[in-house]
Amino acid sequence: MAKTRVMIKVSGEAFAGENGMGINPSVVKKIAKELKDAYEIGTYEIGVIVGGGNIFRGKQASEMGIERSSADYMGMIGTIVNALALQNSLESYGVNTRVMTSLNIPQVAEPYIRRKALSHFEKGRVVIFGGGTGNPYFSTDTTAALRAAELGAEMILMAKNGTDGVYDKDPRKNVDAKRFKELTHKEILEKRLHVMDSTAAALCLDNKIKIYVFDLNVEGNIKNALLGKSIGTLINNDKE
Questions:
Q1: How many CA within 13 A on the CB side of residue 5?
Q2: pLDDT for the residue numbered 209
Q3: In DSSP terms, which residues pair with 128 in a beta bridge?
Q4: Does pTM top 0.90 for this prediction?
Q5: Number of domains the chain is built from
Q6: Rounded CA gap, 66 and 30, in Å?
Q7: For position 45, which CATH number holds?
Q8: Rounded to a whole number, what is the largest CA-CA distance in the chain?
Q9: Is there a contact between 117 and 127 (Cβ–Cβ < 8 Å)?
Q10: Is residue 213 within 8 Å of 158, Cβ to Cβ?
Q11: Chain segment 124-140, per-residue pLDDT in tens
Q12: What are phi and psi of 115, to 5 degrees?
Protein backbone atom coordinates (compact mmCIF):
# COMPACT_ATOMS: atom_id res chain seq x y z
CA MET A 1 0.00 0.00 0.00
CA ALA A 2 1.32 3.43 -0.97
CA LYS A 3 2.21 5.64 1.97
CA THR A 4 1.41 9.33 2.38
CA ARG A 5 4.45 11.57 2.64
CA VAL A 6 4.39 14.40 5.21
CA MET A 7 6.85 16.99 6.50
CA ILE A 8 6.93 17.87 10.18
CA LYS A 9 8.36 21.27 11.10
CA VAL A 10 9.67 21.40 14.68
CA SER A 11 10.71 24.77 16.07
CA GLY A 12 14.21 25.06 17.49
CA GLU A 13 12.84 26.68 20.64
CA ALA A 14 11.05 23.41 21.45
CA PHE A 15 14.43 21.69 21.90
CA ALA A 16 15.33 24.02 24.76
CA GLY A 17 12.26 23.37 26.88
CA GLU A 18 12.00 25.75 29.82
CA ASN A 19 15.69 26.63 29.48
CA GLY A 20 14.93 28.98 26.59
CA MET A 21 18.31 28.34 24.93
CA GLY A 22 20.45 25.31 24.25
CA ILE A 23 19.36 21.67 24.06
CA ASN A 24 17.45 19.96 26.86
CA PRO A 25 18.14 16.21 26.46
CA SER A 26 14.89 15.10 28.13
CA VAL A 27 12.84 17.38 25.86
CA VAL A 28 14.58 16.07 22.73
CA LYS A 29 13.88 12.54 23.95
CA LYS A 30 10.22 13.41 24.36
CA ILE A 31 10.01 14.88 20.83
CA ALA A 32 11.71 11.74 19.47
CA LYS A 33 9.15 9.55 21.26
CA GLU A 34 6.31 11.59 19.71
CA LEU A 35 7.84 11.11 16.26
CA LYS A 36 8.35 7.39 16.86
CA ASP A 37 4.68 6.96 17.80
CA ALA A 38 3.67 8.83 14.63
CA TYR A 39 6.04 6.73 12.52
CA GLU A 40 4.57 3.54 13.94
CA ILE A 41 1.14 4.37 12.50
CA GLY A 42 2.72 2.74 9.47
CA THR A 43 0.97 4.63 6.69
CA TYR A 44 3.23 7.69 6.52
CA GLU A 45 6.66 8.54 5.19
CA ILE A 46 8.03 11.22 7.51
CA GLY A 47 10.44 14.07 6.90
CA VAL A 48 11.40 16.41 9.73
CA ILE A 49 12.61 19.99 9.35
CA VAL A 50 14.16 21.47 12.47
CA GLY A 51 14.59 25.11 13.40
CA GLY A 52 17.59 26.56 15.20
CA GLY A 53 16.21 29.30 17.45
CA ASN A 54 17.46 27.55 20.58
CA ILE A 55 21.06 27.87 19.33
CA PHE A 56 21.14 31.29 17.70
CA ARG A 57 18.50 33.99 17.08
CA GLY A 58 18.34 37.03 14.86
CA LYS A 59 17.95 39.32 17.87
CA GLN A 60 21.34 38.18 19.13
CA ALA A 61 22.88 38.95 15.75
CA SER A 62 21.64 42.54 15.72
CA GLU A 63 22.83 43.06 19.30
CA MET A 64 26.28 41.74 18.34
CA GLY A 65 26.47 43.76 15.13
CA ILE A 66 26.55 40.65 12.92
CA GLU A 67 25.29 41.24 9.38
CA ARG A 68 22.26 39.31 8.14
CA SER A 69 23.92 36.76 5.83
CA SER A 70 26.45 35.67 8.46
CA ALA A 71 23.74 35.46 11.09
CA ASP A 72 21.60 33.27 8.83
CA TYR A 73 24.50 30.88 8.21
CA MET A 74 25.06 30.65 11.97
CA GLY A 75 21.38 29.78 12.37
CA MET A 76 21.67 27.10 9.66
CA ILE A 77 24.53 25.46 11.55
CA GLY A 78 22.33 25.54 14.66
CA THR A 79 19.64 23.55 12.85
CA ILE A 80 22.23 20.87 12.00
CA VAL A 81 23.16 20.57 15.69
CA ASN A 82 19.47 20.03 16.48
CA ALA A 83 19.08 17.54 13.62
CA LEU A 84 21.94 15.41 14.96
CA ALA A 85 20.52 15.49 18.49
CA LEU A 86 17.11 14.40 17.21
CA GLN A 87 18.63 11.66 15.05
CA ASN A 88 20.40 10.09 18.00
CA SER A 89 17.28 10.21 20.17
CA LEU A 90 15.15 8.64 17.42
CA GLU A 91 17.68 5.88 16.85
CA SER A 92 17.70 5.12 20.58
CA TYR A 93 14.03 4.16 20.02
CA GLY A 94 14.97 1.91 17.12
CA VAL A 95 13.80 4.26 14.35
CA ASN A 96 16.00 4.18 11.25
CA THR A 97 16.92 7.76 10.29
CA ARG A 98 19.09 9.84 8.00
CA VAL A 99 20.16 13.47 8.44
CA MET A 100 20.52 15.42 5.20
CA THR A 101 21.89 18.95 5.10
CA SER A 102 21.89 21.71 2.52
CA LEU A 103 25.34 22.77 3.78
CA ASN A 104 28.16 20.40 2.89
CA ILE A 105 29.36 18.73 6.12
CA PRO A 106 30.05 15.17 4.93
CA GLN A 107 31.75 14.15 8.18
CA VAL A 108 28.45 14.36 10.08
CA ALA A 109 25.57 14.13 7.59
CA GLU A 110 24.65 13.42 3.98
CA PRO A 111 24.31 16.33 1.56
CA TYR A 112 20.73 16.94 0.49
CA ILE A 113 20.08 15.26 -2.86
CA ARG A 114 16.45 14.95 -3.88
CA ARG A 115 16.67 11.45 -5.39
CA LYS A 116 18.61 10.19 -2.38
CA ALA A 117 15.98 11.59 -0.01
CA LEU A 118 13.25 9.82 -2.01
CA SER A 119 15.24 6.59 -1.74
CA HIS A 120 15.44 6.95 2.05
CA PHE A 121 11.67 7.43 2.25
CA GLU A 122 11.09 4.34 0.12
CA LYS A 123 13.32 2.35 2.51
CA GLY A 124 11.19 3.40 5.47
CA ARG A 125 13.60 5.87 7.03
CA VAL A 126 12.70 9.09 8.81
CA VAL A 127 14.64 11.85 7.04
CA ILE A 128 15.72 14.86 9.11
CA PHE A 129 16.61 17.97 7.13
CA GLY A 130 19.13 20.40 8.60
CA GLY A 131 20.81 23.53 7.28
CA GLY A 132 17.69 25.31 6.07
CA THR A 133 17.65 25.94 2.33
CA GLY A 134 21.40 26.55 2.34
CA ASN A 135 20.83 30.21 1.50
CA PRO A 136 20.54 33.30 3.73
CA TYR A 137 17.29 35.27 3.87
CA PHE A 138 15.16 32.11 3.88
CA SER A 139 13.59 30.67 7.02
CA THR A 140 13.15 27.05 8.05
CA ASP A 141 9.43 27.55 7.31
CA THR A 142 10.45 28.09 3.68
CA THR A 143 12.66 24.99 3.93
CA ALA A 144 9.64 22.95 5.02
CA ALA A 145 7.55 24.26 2.11
CA LEU A 146 10.37 23.76 -0.40
CA ARG A 147 11.16 20.19 0.69
CA ALA A 148 7.45 19.34 0.74
CA ALA A 149 7.06 20.59 -2.83
CA GLU A 150 10.25 18.90 -4.09
CA LEU A 151 9.54 15.57 -2.45
CA GLY A 152 5.80 15.36 -3.05
CA ALA A 153 4.57 15.71 0.54
CA GLU A 154 0.83 16.27 0.89
CA MET A 155 0.97 18.13 4.20
CA ILE A 156 3.24 20.10 6.49
CA LEU A 157 2.63 19.62 10.21
CA MET A 158 3.67 22.83 11.96
CA ALA A 159 4.45 21.59 15.46
CA LYS A 160 4.49 24.82 17.45
CA ASN A 161 6.09 25.40 20.83
CA GLY A 162 3.11 26.20 23.06
CA THR A 163 0.67 27.46 20.38
CA ASP A 164 -2.34 25.26 19.60
CA GLY A 165 -3.38 26.76 16.27
CA VAL A 166 -3.85 29.97 14.31
CA TYR A 167 -5.61 32.90 16.00
CA ASP A 168 -7.03 36.17 14.74
CA LYS A 169 -4.68 37.95 17.20
CA ASP A 170 -1.99 37.00 19.67
CA PRO A 171 -3.67 34.73 22.28
CA ARG A 172 -0.90 35.42 24.78
CA LYS A 173 -1.81 39.11 24.83
CA ASN A 174 -5.54 38.98 24.07
CA VAL A 175 -7.90 36.81 26.13
CA ASP A 176 -10.62 37.21 23.48
CA ALA A 177 -8.43 35.85 20.65
CA LYS A 178 -10.32 33.46 18.41
CA ARG A 179 -8.76 30.24 17.13
CA PHE A 180 -9.54 29.24 13.58
CA LYS A 181 -10.46 25.61 12.94
CA GLU A 182 -9.84 25.87 9.20
CA LEU A 183 -8.45 28.48 6.80
CA THR A 184 -7.40 28.72 3.17
CA HIS A 185 -3.90 29.56 1.97
CA LYS A 186 -5.14 32.85 0.54
CA GLU A 187 -6.68 33.83 3.88
CA ILE A 188 -3.42 33.41 5.78
CA LEU A 189 -1.69 35.64 3.22
CA GLU A 190 -4.45 38.26 2.94
CA LYS A 191 -5.05 38.47 6.71
CA ARG A 192 -1.31 38.40 7.42
CA LEU A 193 -1.77 35.61 9.95
CA HIS A 194 1.56 34.52 11.36
CA VAL A 195 1.44 30.84 10.46
CA MET A 196 4.70 30.91 8.52
CA ASP A 197 6.56 33.50 6.51
CA SER A 198 4.94 34.73 3.29
CA THR A 199 7.42 32.95 1.00
CA ALA A 200 6.61 29.60 2.59
CA ALA A 201 2.87 30.28 2.55
CA ALA A 202 2.97 31.21 -1.15
CA LEU A 203 4.90 28.02 -1.95
CA CYS A 204 2.25 25.96 -0.18
CA LEU A 205 -0.52 27.81 -2.04
CA ASP A 206 1.10 27.26 -5.44
CA ASN A 207 1.74 23.57 -4.79
CA LYS A 208 -1.55 22.81 -2.96
CA ILE A 209 0.22 21.62 0.18
CA LYS A 210 -1.96 21.45 3.29
CA ILE A 211 -0.66 22.91 6.56
CA TYR A 212 -1.73 21.77 10.03
CA VAL A 213 -0.80 23.97 12.99
CA PHE A 214 -0.91 22.48 16.50
CA ASP A 215 0.83 22.45 19.87
CA LEU A 216 3.84 20.13 20.05
CA ASN A 217 3.86 20.24 23.86
CA VAL A 218 0.67 18.20 24.24
CA GLU A 219 1.52 14.52 24.46
CA GLY A 220 0.45 12.50 21.43
CA ASN A 221 -0.31 15.51 19.24
CA ILE A 222 1.89 14.58 16.27
CA LYS A 223 0.18 11.20 16.08
CA ASN A 224 -3.23 12.81 16.64
CA ALA A 225 -2.58 15.28 13.81
CA LEU A 226 -1.77 12.44 11.40
CA LEU A 227 -4.88 10.57 12.53
CA GLY A 228 -7.00 13.59 11.59
CA LYS A 229 -8.08 14.58 15.08
CA SER A 230 -9.21 18.19 15.60
CA ILE A 231 -6.37 19.59 17.71
CA GLY A 232 -5.37 22.74 15.84
CA THR A 233 -5.90 24.72 12.63
CA LEU A 234 -5.96 23.18 9.16
CA ILE A 235 -4.93 25.35 6.20
CA ASN A 236 -6.54 23.53 3.31
CA ASN A 237 -6.19 23.71 -0.46
CA ASP A 238 -8.06 26.68 -1.84
CA LYS A 239 -11.31 25.84 -3.52
CA GLU A 240 -11.08 26.47 -7.24
A1: 21
A2: 95
A3: 48, 99
A4: yes
A5: 1
A6: 34
A7: 3.40.1160.10
A8: 53
A9: yes
A10: yes
A11: 999 999 999 999 999 99
A12: -65, -35
